[in-house]
What we know:
Helices cover 37% and strands 14% of the residues.
Amino acid sequence: xxxxxxxxxxxxxxxxxxxxxxxxxxxxxxxxxxxxxxxxxxxxxxxxxxxxxxxxxxxxxxxxxxxxxxxxxxxxxxxxxxxxxxxxxxxxxxxxxxxxxxxxxxxxxxxxxxxxxxxxxxxxxxxxxxxxxxxxxxxxxxxxxxxxxxxxxxxxxxxxxxxxxxxxxxxxxxxxxxxxxxxxxxxxxxxxxxxxxxxxxxxxxxxxxxxxxxxxxxxxxxxxxxxxxxxxxxxxxxxxxxxxxxxxxxxxxxxxxxxxxxxxxxxxxxxxxxxxxxxxxxxxxxxxxxxxxxxxxxxxxxxxxxxxxxxxxxxxxxxxxxxxxxxxxxxx
Length: 332
Ligand code: CP
């Protein structure tokens, strides 16, 4: 038994095998039902369309039953800190929650976003980590403060099925958004792109660098897998010659916990750090990717997201197939 918390815990061979399994599910070549007679717990601290729907459908298609819980909504508010004196608003400790839930289910999926308060603490994924610590059944990360590995796997699958297996020139570009957003998607995309050996360019304004320890991991993986990493603050030349454009906004770790300061810092980038037709024209006929949901005409123009090079709907579909592959490998 293993958890699926970040792609970094898996070898390139294991990740390739998951994508091959996902492609078999997608094309009807695999009809295995490893969840027959079993249930999977889905714990959503935050909203979702794609993750929740694709997990519930995927569990059904693998023969199982999804038990979806929303702490503070359809289940009790949860405390995760060891030794906490629970005299405030939290009703149940994860210690009991997890150990009870796993008496009913074969695996637990968890969505627990960053609170955007303290990067030093949140980068360690304390809530997801507590689930993994208390659980004796597999835990699947459905987006934590630090990682969104199911999204990254769907992204790698989409690149492979659209452009083939050879490494590609891939741009991860920061985009303007009126709010400071979590970093899980860009973190996991960059990590996975490096693990799959792509030539990765990361473009962001000064002050919006990814986590420095994570960047070290990204560079290490890129070197090990025949890829490369290039960093730039130039929003226009970043697009030159790339084959994949992956857009995402994220918050500044410098202003983490101070949303007003981040919003003030990003204001000059409004209307400039957007993926538009002029920037796409600089690419090598790149596909456009985004994890969704996306703010049209803020992150990306209608013309780009509605173009025939946009694969955002395929990416969302591939969440279903890749999560089936992951669950089939976790639950035997
Ligand atoms: N991309 C993604 O995780 O979408 P949801 O937030 O709708 O699940």
